[in-house]
Design brief:
Elements: H1 3-24, E1 29-32, H2 37-49, E2 63-65, E3 68-71, H3 80-100, H4 102-111, H5 120-141, H6 149-160, H7 171-190
Parallel strand pairs: 1-3
Antiparallel strand pairs: 2-3
The structure holds zinc ion.
Zinc ion (ZN) binds near residues 89, 93, 126 and 129.
Amino acid sequence: MTEAMTERSHKDAEQRLLDDLRAEFPAFRIVSKRGDRLSRVIDRALRVLSLGGQTSYLTRYRTVIGDTLYVPDDWYRAPAVDRLICLRHERVHLRQRRRYGMLGMSFAYLFLPLPIGLAWCRARMEWEAYEETLRATAEHLGDDALSDPALKATMLERFVGPDYLWMWPFPGAIERWFDDAVTRIRATRSSG
Ligand SMILES: [Zn+2]
């Protein structure tokens, strides 16, 4: 396939996923972080809590809160496959919210057992969501994409670094999770 054809087919897949998401979560909407008050408040809090380590909440991160996905400016400029993979990740968080309730999920995600450094509940929820990220990556970019060392390094940094306030700062545990997740994904894909 040419690049344009690939982008076209990713766009179609993105549209189908958006339709599915809206069928499953009718209140789902996408809002720009720029000019959004709640996003600015969160950005400031994260800068303080991470001692300046997390300064790209408004410009790099996509964040789902309730039924709303808050996105940075580059959302619509990014390749469709990027949005597609992100929407798969966020769908997991929407389902977690339905499973645990808004209050239960927010409290556990933010505070248990600690808000910073040992956020086991946050790490658990992100493991589940990032496994879906990896699965979507394999489906749309091919199995080989999972072997890219940069992908593993990015995942590792997400969990052990300031991005999510050092949610589970144990590199060995994250590497094991990553390898196990890739094994699980490859096993289910090869079994059809
Ligand atoms: Zn997430």
